[in-house]
Amino acid sequence: MRVTVGVSGGIAAYKAAELVRALQRQALDVHVAMTRAACRFVQPLTFAALTGHKVLSSLWDEPDPNDESSIEHIGEAQWTDALVVAPATANILARFAHGVADDFLTTMALATTAPVLVAPAMNVNMWNHAATQANLEILRQRGVRVIEPGTGDLACGMVGEGRMAEPEAIADAVLNALGRRHDLAGEVVLVTAGGTREALDPVRYLGNRSSGKMGYALAEAAQSRGAKVILVTAPSALRPPAHCEVVKVTSAEQMRHAVLDRMEETTLVIKAAAVADYRPAKVLEQKLKRSGPLTLELEPTEDILAEVVRRRRPGQLIVGFAAETENRMENGRAKLLRKGADAIVVNDVSGETTGIDSNLNAATFLTPTTAIELPAMPKRDLAERILDEVAALRRSKALVVEFEDEARESGGADQSEIVAPAVRRQTIVE
Ligand code: CTP
Questions:
Q1: Nearest CA to ligand 1 atom 8
Q2: Ligand 1 closest atom vs CA 319
Q3: pTM, full prediction
Q4: How far is the CA of 270 from the centre of ligand 1 (A)?
Q5: Phi and psi, residue 409, nearest 5°
Q6: What is the pLDDT of residue 266?
Q7: What pLDDT, on a 0 to 100 scale, did the predictor assign at position 69?
Q8: What is the architecture of the domain spanning 188-379?
């Protein structure tokens, strides 16, 4: 999703950089539009470097012929999912309230139909002035979300109301406006994470290189989006996210029991763990002694994901992962069909900078009808993007159920008439 941060000319303009980072941590694509006065407080270069996008400030830049909309302020207004102005000076509030469109930001504000938020910052007397309060009232009446300033020391040396809200609080308000913050409220999400260990003798085990980072990031992101989270984790050096219920396991068989035990209450299962496919057929009671070449007999473990799918309850969503080193898409697609999950997140684990044990990951979110590419990004950001797709999947399935109910009530359409609603941004896989 894309958010435009509008920066107007107040001393709090430097805090807009923190806001940009807070929004980026939520995996949002942030663009910045600055007024001329704002450019005197902070160099546009700061925001260009942070966002990787050109800073929008002039209405008179040469149009880019490759841009879908060659009129930049209209393009930005059309493609953004929210406009948040922080800091919003008394002047910009007045211009917004009265529909003045004399620079990029004010023109874009008129042209957008996305939610608009303002975080005022000014001297206490300017804040209390009847003109400012009347302008704010006009904006509120029009549905603009005003993020109230706090009270404290102001840059002008006075103490009082007018201090811009903290960047994290502004970012939270943006997420609420995007309807994303609590889109998993009511879900009980079971996430598996880490790499299982299969004992060979009292001191040795067969394991894998999984760090648990992806699963822990998913647990944290689901929790922050309103879900109750149960994290079933194989050994990992990471600290589990606060407020999640943590179930620690070691082997694939222990993970299987922990997962199946909690299926009754779970509405969404995300299997990010790297589970052993084989374990030693016999666990030695004493430490194995060195004595020439050694052949180990291994036996297969149960496929937990496939078992969860077999036992699924109505409405339960099941998302697996696929770690692949070759023929990523073909293998991922085959795995999706074989396991019967609603979606599979396909990782290429052969890369040097992404995948197992690294902080970055790239993936494809694969469903039976769609393939959504998620480019390399920090695992916490990727977790948000995966949950965006999971939430979209949940919404599209809910629509099908509603449609089926309606069809049944109105005398029953035959099954062939029941079609899944169009899912946004989808690429149909051949
Ligand atoms: N998985 C599982 N139980 C297993 C093995 C894997 O639940 N015994 C789950 C993983 O948590 C993951 C998905 O199945 O969500 C795919 O795991 P992966 O290791 O990529 O695939 P495998 O099924 O093991 O197939 P292969 O190793 O042959 O690629």
A1: 303
A2: 15
A3: 0.66
A4: 12
A5: -60, -35
A6: 98
A7: 46
A8: 3-Layer(aba) Sandwich (3.40)
For the cut 90, the answer to whether the pLDDT of residue 404 exceeds it is: no
With a pLDDT cut of 90, the percent of the chain lying above it is: 66
**156, 238, 360, 407: which one is catalytic?**
156
Within its chain, how far is the Cα of 404 from the centroid? Answer: 30
252 Cα nearest atom in ligand 1: 8
Quote the CA–CA distance of 256 and 84 in Å, as a whole number.
46
List the domain boundaries for the chain: 2-179, 188-379, 394-429
Q: Are 55 and 100 in contact (CB under 8 A)?
A: no
Confidence of residue 420 (pLDDT cuts 50, 70, 90): very low
Supply angle C-alpha 367, 28, 385, rounded to 5.
Answer: 20
Q: Tell whether the model's pLDDT for residue 17 goes beyond 60.
A: yes
Block residue for tokens 């770690």: 323
Q: Which of 250, 233, 218 is nearest to 347 (CA)?
A: 218
Please check whether the two domains, 2-179 and 188-379, share a CATH topology. Answer: yes
Pocket test for ligand 1, best of 218, 257, 321, 345 (most atoms within 8 A of CB): 321
In whole angstroms, give the CA distance from residue 15 to residue 411.
Answer: 59
Residue range 277-282: mean pLDDT, rounded: 98
Residues with CB under 6 A from ligand 1: 192, 252, 271, 273, 275, 277, 301, 303-305, 320-323, 335
Query: pLDDT band at 416, cuts 50/70/90?
Result: very low
CATH number of this structure's domain 2-179:
3.40.50.1950
pLDDT tens-place string over residues 307-328: 999 999 999 999 999 989 899 9
* CA distance to 173, 221, 243, 317, per residue, from 231 (Å): 28, 12, 10, 16
Taking the centre of ligand 1 as the mean of its atom positions, its distance from the CA of residue 79, in whole angstroms, is 38
Q: What is the DSSP letter of 226?
A: T
Bridge-based pairing state of the strands 205-206 and 198-199: antiparallel
Closest CA to ligand 1's atom 14? 305
Tell me, yes or no, if 39 is annotated catalytic: no
Mean pLDDT (whole number) for 248-275:
98
Q: Residue 65: is its pLDDT beyond 50? A: yes
Ligand 1: centre distance to CA 274 (Å): 7
Ligand 1 pocket test: which of 303, 310, 327 has the largest number of ligand atoms within 8 Å of its C-beta?
303
Lowest mean pLDDT among 171-180, 188-197, 346-355: 346-355
Output the CA 286–ligand 1 centroid distance in Å.
30
